[in-house]
Amino acid sequence: MKKYIYTFIICGMLNASCSNLLDLDSKTSVTNTYLTTPEGLSASVTGLYSMARELSGGMSEDGSNLYIITMCDFNTDLMIFRGGVSAAIGRLNLSFTTSAPDVNKFWKHHYGIIGKANEIISIAEKIGLENSSVLQAWSEAKFFRSRSYFELWKRFDRLYINTEITTVDNLQREFKPATTEELMTLISTDLDDAITNLDWSTAQRGRVTKATAKHVRAQVAMWEKDWTKVIEECEDIFEQSSLYSMENKTENIFNSAELTSREVLWSFQYSKNLGGGGSGTPLGGHRLAIQTTAHLSKVSGCIDSPEQGGYGWGRVYPNTYLLSLYDQAKDTRYKELFVHRYVYNDKNFPDRFGKEVPLPKNSSTYLETLHFMSKKFFDQWTLIDNPSFGSSFKDLIVYRLAETYLMASEAYMNRDGGMSPDALRCYNQTWKRAGNDTFMGPLTQDILVDEYARELNFEGVRWPLLKRLGLLGERVKAHYGESKAENPCLDKDFTECRTSFVIGKHERWPIPQEQVDLMGKENFPQNKGWD
Predict the structure, then answer these.
(1) How many CB atoms lie within 10 A of CB 428?
(2) Which among 70, 396, 520, 531 is placed 20 to 30 Å from 207, CA to CA?
(3) Closest CA to 38 of 129, 145, 114, 100
(4) Contact 83, 132 (CB under 8 A)
(5) d(CA 64, CA 85)
(6) How far apart are CA 3 and CA 523, in angstroms?
């Protein structure tokens, strides 16, 4: 049976007017004729950046949900969930069904990017890739298309492939799930095309580079267990040491509003300038900071202040299991990447001012107000003039070099063994810089999995890592959330996923019911466990 899908995509042609910053502000409307010119394609491709950033922006109550779900270690062994951010997914409860709104949003978000990328790729090929600006737009569109298919595949396992522009002549389509081989071939080919033609650096901060594409190509090769390919892509990036290098300390990467460290391979940019982020208003920003910041101002004697993270909702936190992985005496990340305790800061209470807020026991308010929190989204910079503002304009990291080194370490270990000098060299890039003694080996999968956690928590790495290694259900059932026994400040257990995670089902999301209905369940049946 064939289905008719009518897709209407409205995408402004966006100008990039600043020489060192990717400006996503839409200032003009451009006709389809303009799109078929090199100048039109160059303007159009910036729309892909704006579309990608929509994953994290918005001033609505559910703003930033998709970024938080996919980047803040939802349904893993490293986080504790209080509520408010797609609670059905956060707890994997009975409300998480095939009709879950955020699952459908994620599907449509990435297929929307794919559709726009298809348009740019097709038009670029018609104009001719001999023109340098056309080739640049084509290469960036190839990157975005491959990345969106990869992100969808990691979550849903089964997808349909479309590489054509949707026109009145091809509305009639037959939808069927692509094989994993077909998907991996498309993703890898698109990334290889991008790698061949993108430059190592760009004058406009925020654009993807050859290093960005190679990092994602290495991620894809990790799933295929093509260890030599992983090593090749990672080592190519390491050789560009004048452009990309590790910071002396992990915390240095996050200690500003503009995340311009040479360790950052790609980030979503935000600012208070027109076009600087969010939807519906130039001052939209994102909700990451307040979602991951404790609601300290609910404590008598405390007010919102930039020094303690500003206004917070206290909804998503790292858990006690994650903190247990650090050597608290040596590993600087334990102290520098988290806020462990808070200070009374309201001068109207002089008897308490400047003193540490004591932690309660069996408190129903502790999780919202005083739980330890991640500093990766901590924003004392863009909120300094208004710490109670409900949004942040701090950049958000998508990929950074620390993951590249850990992928290379894992690949060397799998190919050459746990005592491989190269595996140890790459592992010590993150381990040793955190203040730990040089690790001499042998390297094991468990050791690497723990270091991924210590270094890359709340950066979108954990869920796909555990799924790739076949450890997701096992780790969730052992460590998700916190129990009262693990954290006596809590008044009850927050461990829902330990019992609600169904092995064989929750390693993937359901195909959104809306999409199954549109494609026809006889053509594209529901995922196993969700039917």
Answers:
(1) 18
(2) 70
(3) 129
(4) no
(5) 9
(6) 9
* 257: nearest Cα among 378, 374, 338, 339: 378
C-alpha dihedral over 319, 324, 330, 332, to 10 degrees?
Answer: -10
Which of 54, 46, 56 has its CA nearest to residue 24?
Answer: 46
Q: Which of 435, 19, 385 is nearest to 250 (CA)?
A: 435
Residues 6 or more apart in contact with residue 68 via CB below 8 angstroms: 74, 85, 86, 287, 288, 291, 292, 316
* Rounded CA Rg of the chain: 23
pTM, entire model: 0.92
Question: Rounded to 5 degrees, what angle do the CA atoms 319, 320, 322 make?
Answer: 70
Q: Which two tokens stand for residue 487?
A: 């954290």
Q: Are 270 and 394 contacting, i.e. CB atoms less than 8 angstroms apart? A: yes
DSSP conformation letters of 383-424: TTT-TT-S-B---EEEEEHHHHHHHHHHHHHHHH-TT-HHHH
For residue 346, the one-letter residue type is D
Separation between Cα atoms, residue 155 and residue 249, nearest integer Å: 32
> Do residues 137 and 124 lie in contact, with contact meaning Cβ atoms separated by under 8 Å?
yes
With the CA atoms of 41, 203, 401 and 270 taken in that order, what torsion angle do they form, in degrees rounded to the nearest 10? -70
Nearest 10 degrees: CA dihedral of 463, 464, 465, 470? 90
8 Å CB contact between 272 and 295: no
pLDDT in tens, 328-382: 999 999 999 999 999 999 999 999 999 999 999 999 999 999 999 999 999 989 8
Contact 293, 66 (CB under 8 A): no
Task: For residue range 172-192, list pLDDT tens digits in order.
Answer: 777 899 999 999 999 999 999
The stretches of 359-504 forming alpha helices (DSSP H) are 366-369, 401-416, 421-431, 445-456, 462-468, 472-479, 496-500
Looking at 10-130, which runs of residues are DSSP E strands? 79-81
Cα end-to-end span (Å), the chain = 20
